[in-house]
Amino acid sequence: MNTMTQPDPFMLNQWYPIASLQEILPGQPRATKLFGQRISYERNVAGALQVSDGSRALPVLEQYGCLWTSLGEPDELFDVPEYAEPDRRNVNAGSVGVQVSAQRGIENFLDMGHFPYVHTGILGALPHTEVKEYNVEMIRDGREIIATECLFYQPMASTVSTSGADVEYIYRVPHPTCSVLYKSSPMDEKRLDAIALFGQPTGEETFRGHMVLSILDDVNTDDFISYFQLHIFGQDKPILENQMPKRLPLDPRAETPIRADKTSIMYRRWLTGHGVTYGTIPAAA
Amino acid sequence: MHDKTWVPVANSTDLAPHHVFQGRLMGQELAIWRADDGHVNVWENRCLHRGVRLSIGINTGSELVCQYHGWRYANRNAGCTYIPAHPADAPARTICSKTWPVIETGGLIWTHFEDRDPPLPELPEGGAALRPLPLAAAPEMVRESLAGLAPEGFGPLDETLQARGPAGSLHLMVQPADAGRAVIRGIVQSDEPELALLRRLNLFLRSARDQILAQAALTPAPEPIPHRPERVSEELAEMPEMVSGPARLRVQVAKKELVAKDIVALELEPLRGALPASQPGAHIDVALPNGLLRQYSLVNAPGETGRYVIGVKREPESTGGSAAIHDSLAEGDLLAISEPRNNFTLRRDVEETILVAGGIGVTPLLSMAAALKDDGLPFRLHYFAGSEEQIAFGERLAALGDRLVNYIGLDPEKTALALKGILKSPAPHAQVYVCGPAPMLDVTRATAAEAGWPDAAVHFEYFANTREIDTSSSFRIELARSAVTLEVPAGRSILSVLQEAGVAPPSSCCQGACGTCMARVIEGEPDHQDVYLSEAEKAAGDKILTCVSRAKSDRLILDL
């Protein structure tokens, strides 16, 4: 894209993650992009975070181990209550740039059908390919999509099991470029691990994915948890970068959905309903 | 931007076995691949599901498999044959990748985007293809710049980029990859040693390229041609039920061959174009010369898309269907058939598959066995036949190796015993498929149930309903969606009453065996007389086969 496209109001007026807090060192200014716009940020020696687009100071929020800002007027950031539970490990697993729109990235995050093909032997295994029926609905007055009772066969269901079994997932989409998934914790079957993908739309056809985990794990090191998550994301990246077009098509007839894609169908409708044009190809009126 | 002509988009040597070549023509990315049967496919480089490039997919030699979700597209017709996320469903027939015509000549692969085939390119006999030379310049400019250049020994290239000289003849082509991208391709015919000549021409083209690029640098690069992919059909966007029309495909009997005692195999070829995609377990309706409509399962293996292959047994008590095929049909005859329909779909998300065939019931199972073998999934085909000479499709069976177990000439008692052995231990993630004569199917299903196989793991297809149909009841049907009430008198079927009212679902076998005419029951108690629904489905009472089943209650409310 040679010309810089202006974001639509819904996209503009959101908080966006621009860095992992642990990577921001006092007195070392850094720059990144949001909507194609250059953004600089710095933690001054007094410890305060400052974000600027070069002409004005931008709002600052420190949340879920990330620095968040906005080029518009954002409401409150969505809640991930698990992050505050004292016995959890909160890990910023890393930030990865991807040459595709952030919405394509979110849609991939919501998808179970690719597990046996893209995450073979980890999140899925052939021939167990079926995506069973699940529920998806809108909650919080249409501000969030939630998919529940999502079951998918996983070859090593937990660190203690030797055989495969169905694992249950819950997916939340509380933000146009952020999603949180929950799956049963290997450490405590009654509780759920939370894994989040926070998308920073650096451009219409590029984003950085910030991965944040809030899990029950007193065995593995932070590094190991990060490597694992980066390994998974590294498998998704080449697939995402071979999607055409790079922006997410919102015309229902642009691609061929199947029942397994119920969540993404709702996600696309939700984006359409909010008039999202940035990073998408809106349906012709 | 170019004359109506075939355009070369790849060299034949680019299409290595089981490779997918990524090409480009006028801004459109192409996935170009050769199947094991030699057929070259030129497709839109995009999986219809989520837009992932098919050129990063897997060419199995018979199908192209998308890397993202494993969707499979068949050689030649590009129809989607399998969607792994829904292993029990047949993909909607119309999910079909975009394809373009293809010819292969002069060591090059050619295609075009015109509505009709342009005349074939005139090429020298026995030429060799040059190494392609891509360059970032407008194709028209490349063409203009090449005209007039004179490669040594060939003389100047004319306006059509042809040259003839003492060294031989040279044809150059400019592939318009995009508004600002071109590929120079060519064919040379000469008596000179080939390698040295190709090297010399490659050097000539490289120096021409440098000149063209220097010139191109003086003008701004043109905007790439925007790619607007075609929209999928409206019903695909909604993931509909599969429906099928009457027999409207025209095919020719390309081969008729006796493949066992009283069994002929027919190979059916399209009169034009490609045959629609089919999946293992699918059948077609065949309209016979004597006016009858009969269902036959396809024997086809994956990628075997040029012809439909069916097996037909002469039935002594036939109402004329099989006799018409055996006695009057000849090679070269035309037949009307339906598109393939699949009510006997093969799941491939299982760890073990048991196929049980009785007699001619082996036909759909042969197709399944070939697909499972291709996928490397464990299975066994248990084939019950009356005698050695009744074993059909020997070659296909031989390809299954030790995964085939034959049972010859067993009486009903021994058959039941053998089935008990086959089905003795139900395993999780295992599935059973059985097709054969009604008595054997009944025994197999009963044996499976006894051994503890869940109903949902046992799939069956009767090729005929041999039960006596009781049509003595009379009742009322209410059609919820059409808001119509109809009377079904004794002696008539629900289907025929619906057909008269013009609201009938598609139908096929009309004897309660194929499942095509199924309707949803909203209220009322069905009187099931079919052999299609499982016991659990019958007990649930929310589906009915309208061709043979009736009502036990005074009325039925149907979702029609």
UniProtKB/TrEMBL annotation, chain A:
Task: Establish whether keyword Oxidoreductase is in the entry.
Answer: yes
> Which terms in the Gene Ontology molecular function aspect does this entry carry?
dioxygenase activity
Task: Tell me which UniProt keywords the record has, alphabetically.
Answer: Dioxygenase, Oxidoreductase
> Which residue numbers delimit the Vanillate O-demethylase oxygenase-like C-terminal catalytic domain?
99-272
Please tell me whether the keyword Oxidoreductase is annotated for this protein.
yes
Pfam families reported for this sequence: VanA_C
Cross-referenced InterPro entries, in alphabetical order?
Cholesterol_7-desaturase, VanA_C_cat
Official protein name in the record: Phenylpropionate dioxygenase, large terminal subunit
**Which species is listed as the source?**
Pseudooceanicola antarcticus
From TrEMBL, chain B:
Cross-referenced Gene3D superfamilies:
3.10.20.30, Nucleotide-binding domain of ferredoxin-NADP reductase (FNR) module, Rieske [2Fe-2S] iron-sulphur domain, Translation factors
Its name, as the record gives it, is: Ferredoxin-NADP reductase
Q: Which UniProt keywords apply?
A: 2Fe-2S, Flavoprotein, Iron, Iron-sulfur, Metal-binding, Oxidoreductase
Any Pfam family hit:
Fer2
Record flagged with keyword Mitochondrion: no
One GO MF term: 2 iron, 2 sulfur cluster binding
Q: Where is the FAD-binding FR-type domain?
A: 246-347
